[in-house]
Specification:
single chain; mainly alpha; transmembrane helix; transmembrane
């Protein structure tokens, strides 16, 4: 099985094509995320909670919309015959879709994560929330990458919708779980940033899940000799 793209230039074209399709919607989402960061930056409990919730919702929506419009919608619109006419292999399409969606999603993801960490470290509030924010941000990224890989590897729209909904329902319980976990709870309102073994273990687990999802989707595409 060949895991590499056969034509890097074609992969770049696929990435640029998806970026051009999604850039207007992305600009709208970024505007909403900046507004939500502004609410968090006000510092009042009510505004911070509202801003944090809006950030979480928008990050989920931007990922879901990207996967839906750039992967699932293209499949529904029967664009495969056109793709088959291009000089591309299944792995070219896999890497094009994966990297395009990751590039698009990482823009708002890094904006939100960097913005929140900057606000925490630059304001008088407790810096101990930094690992907590990192864990939740990575979990949202895990949700997106797993949903994306399922959408790329599985043709069934029903299974894709089920995977997205199932993953989204895990976010709330995960936030509650890490908030009260030993090694996190006692440092959450402290002034020091503590990377406890529990935090590092969860970070490693989240990174491992992302890697496994990408490898599994790549393996499914690498088995294909052609689109037929």
């Amino acid at each position: 099985m060949n895991w590499l793209a056969s034509d890097a230039a074609m992969v770049r074209r696929l990435i640029v094509k998806d970026w051009q399709v999604y850039q207007k919607q992305l600009a709208g989402f970024i505007g909403g995320l900046l507004f939500a960061l502004g609410l968090v930056g006000m510092g009042t409990p009510l505004m911070s909670a509202a801003g944090g919730l809006l950030l979480l919702v928008l990050l989920i929506v931007v990922g879901t919309f990207a996967v839906g419009s750039l992967v699932m919608a293209e499949r529904k619109q029967q664009t495969q015959p056109f793709v088959m006419s291009l000089p591309v292999t299944p792995m070219d399409v896999f890497w094009g879709k994966l990297l395009a969606n990751l590039t698009i999603y990482m823009v708002p993801f890094l904006l939100v994560t960097g913005g929140l960490l900057g606000l925490i470290l630059a304001t008088p509030g407790p810096d101990g929330a930094v690992p907590w924010v990192v864990l939740i941000a990575l979990f949202v990224l895990v949700n997106f990458i797993v949903s994306l890989c399922v959408a790329i590897a599985v043709d069934s729209e029903g299974w894709n919708a089920f995977a997205m909904l199932a993953l989204m329902t895990l976010i709330g319980p995960f936030i509650y779980w890490v908030t009260w976990m030993d090694g996190i709870r006692e440092h959450l309102r402290g002034d020091a940033v503590v990377w406890s073994p529990q935090v590092l273990g969860l970070v490693g687990g989240e990174l491992a899940v992302m890697a496994i999802a990408i490898l599994a989707a790549g393996w499914a595409h690498a088995r294909k000799a052609s689109f037929l």
